[in-house]
Specification:
mainly beta, six-stranded mixed β-sheet, about 50% strand
Length: about 110
Amino acid sequence: QVQLVESGGGLVQPGGSLRLSCATSGFTFSNIAMSWYRQAPGSGREVVACISSTGRTIYADSVKGRFTISRDNAKSTVYLQMNSLKPQDTAVYLCHADSGGWGQGTQVTVSS
C-alpha cells in the first residue's frame, strides 16, 4: 500500500535551517507530482511547495526564496530544504502524493 514517512523536523532557532525528507513506497514515485503542506495549530492545511514528475517546482509566496523542494527518483524520496526559518514557519509539515496519500507529519518548531 501507499506509504509516506516524513523525517527531519525539530526545534531550530530563527534564521536556522532544516531539511525534511519524505520516503515513499507503494506507487511509481517517478511518475507522480509531490507536495509539502503544513498545518499550524488552529489553522488550516496550506501548501508550501510542489514538484512535478519532471522537476518543475512552485512555492507559496511565504516561503519563496527560503525553501527548496527536490526529489530523488532513485530513492523514491522528496525533500524540503528550509533556510532562514522564521517563528511563523512553526507547523506540522506533511508530505503528499498527487495520486493520493499523506504522511503522518513531522513537527517543525522555530523558536529562540
